[in-house]
Amino acid sequence: MIFTAQVKVMPLKELLDPQGKAVMGGLANLGLNGIKDVRIGKNITLQVEADSADAAAQIAEEAAKKLLANQVMEMFEVEIK
Amino acid sequence: MIFTAQVKVMPLKELLDPQGKAVMGGLANLGLNGIKDVRIGKNITLQVEADSADAAAQIAEEAAKKLLANQVMEMFEVEIK
Q1: Closest residue of chain B to A49, computed from CA coordinates
Q2: Residue B17 contacts residue B39 (beta carbons within 8 Å)
Q3: B38 and A44 in contact (C-beta within 8 Å)?
């Protein structure tokens, strides 16, 4: 069975996010002053072939740990849909 | 009041995602053969100052349309948390 797994990878809260800071500056230049903070991460959608949702979550988590996220600088969340 | 808006930006389904294809190759090389497709987009978290959740959603949507997403190649979804 094919499951859709969504992996969100975000920079850790303790770390600066220079890309987010740059986008925040751009938004302020466009007149969007209500935006006080921007953080940018990745959103990865995987199509996983597995016997159960739990098995699919395990495969997605392994993929995140081994390749998708750098756990020194990023945290990740896996969600099966 | 400060609302947290999450903007997901993904490449349109009709378009190739070469970054996703490269990651899928990497995952296969790591022995994760159960993963049949990978698509990579952005996950952007905004802290929005607004009077209501609806107003915050409107600001986040404007930000997505004006700067965060390229609607020729990408689709976006806004969620207020």
Answers
A1: B34
A2: yes
A3: yes
pLDDT classification of A33: cutoffs 50, 70, 90: confident
Looking at the structure, give the CATH architecture of the domain made up of residues A2-80: 2-Layer Sandwich (3.30)
* Per-domain residue ranges of chain A: 2-80
For range A13-34, the mean pLDDT? 94
Distance in Å, alpha carbon of B3 to nearest chain A alpha carbon: 10
Q: Which residues of A sit within 8 Å Cβ distance of B? A: 2, 8-10, 20, 23, 26-27, 30, 32, 34-50, 56, 59, 62-63, 66-68
Q: What's this model's pTM, rounded to 2 decimal places?
A: 0.91
Question: What is residue B18's predicted lDDT score, i.e. its pLDDT?
Answer: 95
Q: Are A59 and B34 inside 8 Å of each other by CB? A: yes
What is the side-by-side order of every strand in the sheet holding B2-11?
A: A74-80, A2-11, A35-49, B35-49, B2-11, B74-80
Question: Quick one: pLDDT at residue B33?
Answer: 87
Over residues B26-46, the pLDDT tens digits come to 999 999 989 999 999 999 999
